[in-house]
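Hello Y.,

Per our agreement to keep a running log of every chain we model this quarter, I'm adding this entry. I've kept the format consistent with earlier entries: sequence first, then predicted structure.
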Amino acid sequence: MGSMDSMDGQTGSEQIGRRLPRPPVGGSYWGLLVRNGDFRRVYLATLISLAGDWFMMVALYDLVLSQTGSATLTSLISVCLGLPALLVTPWAGTLIDRTDRRRLMVIVDLLRAGLALLPILVVSPSLLPLAYLSVAGLSAGSGFFDPASEAAAPNLVAPEDLGRANALLGSAWGTMLMVGSALGGLVATHFGRNTAFVVNALSFLLSALLLIGIKTPFSEQAPHSESPEPLLSSLDEAFQFMRKQPQVLALLCGKGLLGLMMGLTTLLSVFAEKVFLRGSEGISMMFVARGLGALIGPFVLFGLVSSPVRRSQLIAPCMLIYALGYVVLSRSPSLELGMIPVVIGHMGGGAMWQATTFALQKAIPDVLRGRLFSFDQAILAVMYSGSAVCVGLLVDSYGARTVFLTLAILFSTLALLLGFLTRRLWNEPAPTDQT
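Predicted structure for the entry above:
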C-alpha cells in the first residue's frame, strides 16, 4: 500500500508535529480511492461498519415491533441512538482534539463489537432493556468515533480532494443503508435476527483492523503530552470561536432542523409494518429507498455545483426536498409507490448533510474540529431523539398517515424559514478557511 500513498513511507517521528501537504490525486472519485491508501482504509472501514449497523437496525426494529407492536417503544430505539451521544459530547470533543484520533477510533470499535451482541439475549419482552442498552452503548461509541472521523478527514486528503472525499463518505452511509438494510432484511427473515447481530459485531472488528494499518496522522499536531486542559476551558474555547462565526452557527442550526425531520425516518418501519403490512421485508425495502436517496444526493450536489458557497446556499432547498418527500409518502397507496418519494426526499437530505459537513470542515481549524463536530452531533442527537419520541406518541394516538402529513408540512415551513433567515449569509466570505 505504500507505493500507492506518498506519505506511507514516512516514519512516525517525521509525521508527528508537522503534517506535510498531501498532493491532490486528480478529479476522479476512483482515483482518490486508488491513490490514497489511508483514505481508502477509512472509507472501507466506514462501509463495513455501517453495513453491520443496518443489519442490526432492521433486526432490532423487527424485534421490538414483533414483541410489542408499539410505535412508541420502537421510537425509544431512536432515543437510545441519540441521547447517549449527547451525554458524552463534553468529554468526546475535548478528547478528540487532545489525543490520538486513530487510536481512539480503534478502541471504540473494539468496545462496540462486544456491545453489538447484547440483543442476542433478548428472548422475551421483559428482556428488551438489553436491546436498548446495546443501542445506547453503540450510540455513546459513535459520539466519539463519528466526530473523530469527520475531524480527521481534512488531514487524510489534499484540500482539492476534500469535496470528493465528503461525497464518498456521505455515499458510504447511503450505500450501506441501502445494501445493509436489504441484506439485513433477508438475513433476519431467512437466518434469524441473531445472525444479523453477530454480523454487526464482526463489522466493528474489521473496521478496527483497517484503521490500525493507517500511518498518516489524524491531526495536524501531535497529541498533547502535558497535563490536559480543564474541560470547561476547553469547551469555552470552542464556544467562543462558534459565537464569532455566524456561518458556523447557521450550519449547526441547519443540522438541528435536519435532526427534527429525522424523527420521521425513525418510523419508516411503522409505515412498512403497520400501514403497508409488509413486515421485516417492508422495513428493509423502506430503508433501501432511504439509503438509495442518501447515496445519490451527495454525488448529484457535488457533481452539479462546484462552488462551495453555492452549495451552502442550497442547504435550505435540499431540506425542503427532504420534507416534501414525506408529504408525498403520507398519501402513498402502496409500499412500492411510497418508496419513490422516500428516495427523492433522502436525496435532498443526503445532499444537505454533506454540504453542511463540508462547509464546517472548511470553516473550523483542526485544533477545534473535534469539539465543534461533537457539538454538531449533540444538537442532532437532541433534536432527533425528541422528535422521534413525539412522532411515536402521535402515531400511536392519531395514526401514521395523518401525523406524517402534518409534520412534513411543518418541516417544509421550517426549511423555507431557514432559507429566508440565511439568504444573505452565504454571500459573505467565510471568516476562516483552514483546509
